[in-house]
């Protein structure tokens, strides 16, 4: 009960213990005080949001489901902001830390605006084509407070029969819009990893909304929003194809057209902060609980299995990658461990809630070995892979690992779990009666995603290049953040950096006269210094 707390004298406080008739008599003698007491004891009306008989709390709303889905969306958001922002800013050279982090930051923000204006309904709305939904805003109250439904409308076959009934979670459409935005945003942030260190930031600003509208929405609608691959029974539990194969292939394609970094950057591109890189990777790992745990759109059995399998696969892949580094290179690599963690998370995404945990271990081992082989062995033997400057090896860690996960899901998905997740009858892995048919569907879907991303990404990049230069000028490429943004990441001094001397240090430098530069720096104590590598 909300109300003012009335502090009364002791004699008046004892009035509350006497019979009501006596109190009524006392009320005539002290009407003001008793009225205050009566008003303070009366319960005021509840806010509309808490009244069960008002539209704010419809009977279909499950507050637990809604709370979990919002939490899962937040976890996925943390993967991008700050997870990948921190990872990108630390895994590159010092001179590209600001630019790399900003590319991720901008992609996240621009995706949200385009998502609510047009893209959400293109991915999850009414069918326009078998692979594309109708564009429209997701901004009005009537739409956002209604019960979530996907596909947004029921789709009927030629004979008038319902193809697949829509799924209706127990929360409003606004929650679904938010969760799916986070998945769309991280796709573009991952794509950026292939282009770090040379793409013109203005070209990136133009590229992101176009790619979201023309590429991501097609893959999302086809596999999740009621498109032809969805009804065909292709399994993509949480984005192995929609997110990871798409970002890996699109990033590789864009890197081909943008061109490589400077030779000096390609030859030496050591991380500027290993510890921050691990911290960013850790945020990705923990945030994946929302990534895969939110995919069933409810806190159910599949969500629990998915979160467990996600962690198991990541650990198995990290250990496998590290062991391979030790065997072939003689020592473990921290960067390699983070890459192994990433491939394990990516690989399990296609079937996280649909396979047994022993299968997650197997998928993790495969994720730590197959991408390792393509990166460490195949990459050095392929002229195409060597020609394309994929800065963070997004092709290997996302495209290869995502494709691997999709195929393994076609083998290992169990019928008792797939029936809880998909409405398409007979969807199961080859080892459980699905035969080669399910694997064939998985491969065909991967081929569609790869082909679409190659063609559309090429078209977008070439179109943007007609208006905006795709690459930074050579002078900006040589200098880095300071030339591109007028900002630098660290106030530290090191080899090749410019240092700005403070007033006190300048006075001390004058005092030492004609001493050598090294002696002057030692005398000044290297104060007031900024990085420009």
How do the helices and strands line up, and which of them pair or pack?
Elements lengths: L9 H4 L6 H10 L1 H11 L21 H29 L5 H28 L2 E3 L2 E2 L7 H4 L10 E2 L5 E3 L8 H20 L8 H23 L4 H5 L7 H19 L4 H5 L6 H20 L7 H29 L4 H16 L7 H25 L1 H5 L6 H19 L2 H7 L13 H33 L6 H6 L1 H5 L17 H10 L4 H8 L9
Helix pairs in contact: 2-3, 4-5, 4-7, 4-12, 5-7, 5-8, 7-10, 8-10, 8-19, 10-17, 10-19, 12-13, 12-14, 13-14, 13-15, 14-15, 14-17, 15-17, 17-19, 22-23
Number of domains: 3
CATH superfamily label of the largest domain: Ammonium transporter AmtB like domains
Major sheet summary line? 2 strands, antiparallel
Strand content: under 5%
* Silhouette: globular
CATH T-level topology of the largest domain:
Ammonium transporter fold
Taking all Cα atoms into account, the compactness measure Rg is 29 Å
Total strand segments:
4
Ranges with pLDDT <50 over ≥5 residues?
1-34, 501-506, 520-533
Strand order across the biggest sheet?
Answer: 1-2
From the helix content, strand content and strand pairing, which structural class follows?
A: mainly alpha
Kindly state the percentage of residues in helix.
55-70%
Can you describe this structure in just a few lines?
Keywords: Ammonia transport, Membrane, Transmembrane, Transmembrane helix, Transport. The protein has a two-stranded antiparallel sheet. A two-stranded antiparallel sheet has the order 3-4. The protein has 23 helices and 4 strands.
């Amino acid at each position: 009960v909300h109300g003012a707390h009335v502090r009364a004298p002791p004699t008046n406080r004892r009035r509350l213990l006497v019979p009501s008739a006596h109190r009524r008599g006392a009320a005539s003698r002290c009407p003001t005080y008793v009225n205050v007491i009566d008003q303070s004891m009366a319960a005021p009306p509840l806010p509309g949001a808490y009244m069960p008989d008002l539209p704010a709390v419809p009977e279909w709303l499950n507050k637990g489901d809604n709370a979990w889905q919002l939490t899962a969306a937040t976890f996925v958001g943390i993967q991008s902001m700050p997870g990948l922002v921190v990872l990108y800013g630390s895994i590159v050279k010092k001179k590209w830390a600001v630019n790399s982090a900003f590319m991720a930051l901008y992609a996240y923000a621009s995706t949200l605006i385009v998502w609510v204006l047009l893209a959400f309904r293109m991915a999850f709305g009414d069918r326009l084509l078998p692979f594309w939904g109708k564009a429209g805003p997701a901004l009005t109250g009537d739409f956002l407070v209604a019960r979530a439904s996907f596909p947004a409308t029921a789709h009927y076959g030629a004979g008038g029969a319902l193809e697949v009934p829509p799924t209706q979670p127990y929360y409003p459409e606004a929650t679904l819009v938010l969760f799916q935005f986070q998945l769309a945003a991280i796709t573009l942030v991952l794509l950026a990893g292939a282009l770090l260190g040379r793409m013109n930031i203005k070209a990136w600003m133009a590229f992101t909304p176009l790619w979201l509208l023309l590429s991501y929405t097609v893959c999302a609608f086809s596999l999740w929003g009621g498109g032809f691959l969805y009804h065909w029974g292709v399994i993509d539990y949480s984005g192995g194809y929609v997110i990871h194969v798409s970002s890996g292939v699109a990033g590789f394609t864009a890197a081909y057209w943008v061109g490589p970094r400077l030779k000096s950057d390609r030859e030496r591109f050591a991380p500027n902060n290993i510890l921050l890189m691990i911290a960013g990777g850790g945020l990705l790992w923990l945030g994946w609980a929302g990534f895969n745990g939110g995919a069933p759109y409810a806190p159910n059995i599949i969500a629990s299995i998915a979160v467990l399998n996600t962690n198991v696969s990541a650990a198995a892949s990290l250990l496998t990658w590290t062991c391979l580094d030790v065997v072939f290179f003689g020592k473990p690599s921290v960067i390699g461990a983070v890459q192994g963690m990433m491939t394990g998370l990516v690989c399990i995404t296609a079937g996280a809630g649909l396979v047994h945990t022993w299968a997650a271990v197997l998928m993790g081992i495969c994720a730590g070995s197959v991408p390792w082989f393509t990166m460490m062995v195949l990459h050095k033997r392929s002229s195409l892979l060597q020609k394309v400057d994929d800065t963070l090896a997004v092709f290997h860690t996302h495209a290869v690992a995502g494709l691997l996960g999709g195929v393994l899901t076609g083998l290992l998905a169990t019928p008792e779990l797939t029936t809880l997740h998909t409405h398409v009858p007979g969807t199961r892995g080859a080892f459980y009666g699905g035969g080669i048919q399910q694997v064939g569907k998985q491969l065909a879907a991967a081929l569609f995603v790869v082909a679409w991303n190659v063609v559309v990404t090429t078209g977008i990049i070439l179109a943007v290049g007609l208006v905006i230069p795709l690459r930074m000028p050579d002078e900006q490429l040589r200098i880095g953040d300071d030339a591109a943004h007028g900002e630098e990441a660290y106030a530290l001094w090191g080899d090749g950096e410019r240092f700005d001397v403070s007033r006190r240090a300048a006075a001390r430098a004058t005092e030492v006269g004609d001493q050598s530069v090294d002696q002057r720096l030692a005398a000044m104590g290297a104060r007031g210094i900024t990085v420009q590598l």
